[in-house]
Amino acid sequence: MRTITLSVNGEDLTVTVEPRESLADVLRERLDLTGTHLGCEHGVCGACTIEVDGKATRACLILAVMAEGRRITTIEGLRDDPVAAVLRRHFHEQHALQCGFCTPGMLIMARDLLNRSTPSSEKDVREGLAGQMCRCTGYAGIVRAVLAAADETTSTRSPTP
Amino acid sequence: MVEHAGGWIGASLLRKEDARHLLGAGAFVADLKLRGLRDVAFVRSDVAHGVLTAVHKPDDAATRVFTAEDLAWVNVLEAGPELAAFRSGPYPPFASGKVRYVGQPVAACVAQNRAHAEDLAERVSVEIDALPAVIDCVDALAPDAARLFDGWPDNAFITSRVTEGDPASLAAAPIRLHRRLRMNRQATVSLECRGIVAHYDARLDELVIHLSTQGPHVMRRGFAMALGLPEHKIRVIAPDVGGGFGGKNRMMPEELAIAAIAMKVPYPVRWIEDRREHLIASVHAREHVYDLTISADTSGVLLGIEGDVFVDAGAYALWPSGPFMETSMAARNLPGPYRIRHLDIRTHTVATNKAPLGPYRGVGRPGACFAIERLVDEVAHALGREPIDIRRLNMVTSAELPYDTAGGLRFDTGDYPAALETAIERIGFSAVRARQKTGEPDGRVIGVGIAFYSEQSGHGMAEWTKRKSRVVPGYESARVRMLPDGSVVIHVGVQNHGQGHETSLAQIAAHELGLDPDRISIRYGDTATAPFGFGTFASRSIVFSGGAVARSCRMIVEKLRLIGAHLLQATPDAVRIEHGRVLSATGSVSFAEIAAAASIRQELLPDGVEPLLEVVSTYEPTDSRGVFSYGTHAAVVAVEPETGEVEILDYVVAEDCGTMINPLIVDGQIQGGIAQGIGTALYEEIPFSDLGQPLATTFADYMVPGASEIPAVDIAHACTPALVTEYGVKGMGEGGAIAPPAALANAIADAFRDIGVRIDETPLTPRRVSDAVAAARSAHAAQPSEAAS
Ligand code: FES
Ligand code: FES
Fold first, then answer.
1. What positions does the domain Aldehyde oxidase/xanthine dehydrogenase a/b hammerhead occupy (chain B) (predicted)?
2. Does the pLDDT value for residue B396 go beyond 90?
């Protein structure tokens, strides 16, 4: 067992883990942050997407011990995040979720996309979300929602010349 | 909240269930934390077929390993239809005697967490003497094929025949085309895998099972029979369920094992299926082989279909329904929407050394639709006609409805040719034909394909008893309870798992009660609180549960009027209900005042009126043979002939599902269903090696389409209300998944129709498509004049 310290959603937490435990398992099982979902545990579905040091990362693919000293943000840490709030509203309005299992990972990846660039076309959004599986919606509502959120966040952040 | 101009029915109300999921605050089975919880890992067979000679537990952990011997007390459930001709082998939670598929559970290991449970599982040694594996459902019926079950005369669960009209007359038909078509095996792939947490609650003296399921009440019945417990000592709770699609609606060995173990240990036990387990050992789906001859006259009138339908059902029949429903629905839907009057179909539901087959969105019909719609295109091709003209010629018209098909279905209402014409127009059929003449600058080839589907829904007792179903889901129930402040909680027996019932059922209640949906909560998924119901599957929820909610609400309304009128000193027939109030000519009283009288101020009630505003009622449509949603899918594809890569350029659906309660949710179901249908058509497959090893065990080799593969579908609605349901609704959850394999296969075949390409097997992977194109090209080069005809 190893004791590590991580910053999770703005709080420094010390937790004792086995070296083989994935970050996702530690977040879910030891820290009770169950908004990070597991759909494959082998890095393909994107349900476990979280942010590590500001970058969207698959929590099932890194070991908790590798996250020592890192800044971790899960869906629970984005309650008051302004970009996430805009995305949430558009996800709701565009019917971008059905069972909701993919939703936290999808939101984090979509937020990452909006923070990195301004996706201006449907194709950009589809490519940006290519690693996020949704089995229910067929993606159309998700794509519409992210485009609408991109529009809104761009116009509020920086008026384009 | 904005009320739709026409009231709550038909309003695209945003969903009540969204908020929690958007916050990551949904509660799925794996999210549940119970004190002392331990995890389970299963030891599974890595051999497809063999004699299980021994299972050795590690000496230091024997009490934490459970084998068939430890669960010998669990009763084996009889599964499948109640037909004498249906055979099924016992399916206990753990293999005993023999193993019959790779992934079959052999033992369960309990530890403090999953990793430790898996460590323990590695130390359990299993001895199996391998037998030849049966992996092809046609070869499986050969007299010398290895047998899964001793004592069966062959490997068929059941062999059956559907005949209608005068099939002997078909031998003289001028056009007789024989084709062999195949839809391969796949998984259901809910993004949340299966999962269960079970414990024995000593205080309540009951077994509590948290289960990711589509039907908690029916599952409780299965658990009770298998575990020998009375039903009042079992509580099944389905929390948020992360997709099901049919895959979470059968009693599975793992779930039974966990529930059984929970009765024997003093702590909660949990099993969360991982993706590998899901792909190899959850409900498998499809895998049909069609060996059919279609007959037509020279004018293109379709006359009949003869031949064989094989369904590879895997090793066991799953409780309750077993696999025959898959086969019989495929056979009965073969005539499609066409006036095909002669039918002679032999069906074979075959046991093989693969994971058991279960229902998956569309059940049977994606295969049947693929078969008939491919055959129609082949007939058109043989006659040198446009496929759409052959469809126009043969399709049942609205004047002919209700129409009894040769497959024994009664089509009720609608206008099928109108859906065809709308799709033809929306896809720009003639523009595609013109574009095909000029060719594509990038060397790709364009094709357009059409497929019609119908979707039986809301079928009750008449249909399920005809199927000899062991459980007859002929009704649904709703308990409507108005609380003392006039707000409403409604418990239903269906199980929302993405369908938006919390919203659509609240709209129905709002409509009936004259109350804002914000004042209404829909609750489900707990056998302790909901009235008995069958769950969510077979596109049944809006018809049955919607009907039950409406009916119970109307009974509440009667009582509200009675009490309201009394409080207003008016007669019940002189009051009306509006916006949460009962109104008379001179005054009004709120539901809150009435509910308070009914609940906590009985002295205000009229004489002879009992307290409480609470009603349970059930509902079944007045005709229980089912109401049919239907539609036409049209697709344009661009195919790269050398690589076989297919891009969907345009996808249109023209559909009619009767009255829509919430069009936003309807569109979501269509788009999502089509995405799954595209998966079946182009991507998803679980192939097996000759030894019966599944070859797609991760998402790296099992292709689930992503955002780049699924186009936004152009949806056109028509609305012909059903005659026998509340509001004229029809179920529509599965239709999207039925037609895409047919529409896309027809589009790909259309792209290469000049060289007579054979497109006869899904998924249409790049390899299958490029092989088919290469084969057609070389055949065409060898015989140019004939193939060009
Ligand atoms: S659970 Fe991490 S990518 Fe699927
Ligand atoms: S909403 Fe169910 S997986 Fe996306």
1. 23-132
2. yes
Using the 3D structure, point to which of B619, B648, B680 is the last residue of a domain.
Answer: B619
Residues of A in contact with B192 (CB under 8 A): 37, 39, 99, 101
Query: What is the per-residue pLDDT for A161?
Result: 37
Question: Tell me, what DSSP letter sits at residue B395?
Answer: B
Contact assessment for residue B234 and residue B207, using Cβ atoms and an 8 Å cutoff: yes
CA–CA separation, B471 and B464 (whole Å): 8
**Number of domains chain B is built from:** 3
Q: How far is CA B607 from CA A51, B301, B563, B604, in A?
A: 65, 70, 10, 9
Distance from CA of A144 to the nearest CA of B (A): 10
Question: Are both B615 and B627 inside the same structural domain?
Answer: no
Which ligand sits closest to the CA of A28?
A: 1
List beta partners, residue B635: B449, B651
Domain boundaries, chain A: 2-77, 82-154
Inter-chain contacts counted by CB atoms under 8 A, chains A and B: 171
Cis peptide before B320 (omega within 30 of 0): yes
Q: Tens digits of per-residue pLDDT, A90-135?
A: 999 999 999 999 999 999 999 999 999 888 899 999 999 999 999 9
Task: Please tell me the distance between residue A112's alpha carbon and the centre of ligand 1 in angstroms.
Answer: 17
Residue B438 CB partners (closer than 8 Å, separation 6+): none
Note if the pTM is more than 0.90.
Answer: yes
A104 CB contacts (<8 Å, ≥6 apart)? A35, A36, A37, A47, A49, A74, A75, B21, B24
Residue B771 sits in the same domain as residue B655: yes
Tens digits of per-residue pLDDT, B588-608? 999 999 999 999 999 999 999
* Distance of CA B648 from the midpoint of ligand 1 (Å): 27
Between β-strands B342-351 and B302-314, what pairing exists: parallel, antiparallel or unpaired? parallel
Domain span including residue B598: 17-25+475-619
Question: Which atom of ligand 1 lies at the shortest distance from residue A41's CA?
Answer: 1
Do the domain assignments include residue B1?
no
Q: Beta strands of B504-575 (E only): which ranges? A: 520-523
Q: Return the pLDDT at A77.
A: 98
ipTM beyond 0.95?
yes
Architecture of domain A82-154: Orthogonal Bundle (1.10)
Rg of chain A in Å (alpha carbons): 16
CA-nearest residue of chain A to B677? A138
pLDDT given for residue A154 in this prediction: 84
**CATH number of the domain residue B267 falls in:** 3.90.1170.50
Quick check: A50 contacting B, CB < 8 Å? no
Single-letter code of the amino acid located at B654: A
Determine, for residues B698 and A88 on separate chains, whether the beta-carbon distance falls below 8 Å. Answer: no
Domain A2-77: state its class: alpha beta
Torsion sign across C-alpha atoms B232, B234, B237, B243: negative
Q: Is the CB of B699 less than 8 angstroms away from the CB of A44?
A: yes
- Interface list for A 63-122 with B (CB within 8 A): 74-76, 79, 88, 91-93, 95, 97-104, 107, 122
d(CA B345, CA B331): 7
A108 lines ligand 1 (CB under 6 A): no
C-beta separation of B384 from B310 below 8 A: no
